[in-house]
Amino acid sequence: MSRRHDIPSPLPQLSIKQLAELYASPSSVVPDIDLVEALSEYEADACVLFTDTTVTGDADVLRLFYSGYVFALLLINELNEARFLTHRFPPSLKKSDQTLNRSTNLVRALWSKDYNSIYQTLTTPGWPEELRPLVDRYIAYFRFSTFNLLGRAYTSLPPSLGAMYLGLDGTDDEVTEQFISRGWSFDTAKRTLCPPPVIEEPKSSAATRGTASRGDSAASLVDLVGFLGEESSSSWRL
Fold this sequence. Notes:
Blueprint: H1 16-24, H2 32-47, H3 59-75, H4 79-86, H5 91-94, H6 98-112, H7 115-123, H8 132-153, E1 154-156, H9 159-166, H10 172-180, E2 185-187, E3 192-194, H11 203-207, H12 211-228, E4 235-236
Antiparallel strand pairs: 1-4, 2-3
Helix pairs in contact: 2-3, 3-4, 3-6, 3-8, 4-6, 6-7, 8-12, 9-10
């Protein structure tokens, strides 16, 4: 895989300054996949800065590198890779370092679909300033992705559940306004939010692919339900 010209090759020396510049670069300049590739190349440099029992190099560099690498992987939906990465954190540092502990807790919350913990971990102050651009980008990305999934998975849901999925504060009316601003409607009789109608694929197009497409659609729905976590109080699209 070749990187865009925005990231120099060979890479500059691993440092807080270099990482801060990478993390502050918008995705239009340094796409997320290029950021992941650059960090994967830097890991060899990071590994020589610690042993199984001690940190021999700059702990601040290690903290910023590994936490940023976690967020970069999450931005390309590589949750499993992010889990593996947490096991490669410097052993002596991850026991006491707040940033690495929070990165690990975030991955665990995402894996278990604990939305309250996800947003609490993301929004609680304390992330390194150099890491804030990636944290903010991931919050926006995660909310956007989850919002799109809600519209595909649910026929209706109460505002309180929508607020939980998106990490929104405020009253039910305030949450409802946020959903309505994004194209949803509100059923005043049932007090539930309803997504815009799903645009169905033309029958002729679906028919050309045969029954396999129906199986793929069913599998996709199962994936959506699994990703969001099952909530018996709401209605799934069937």
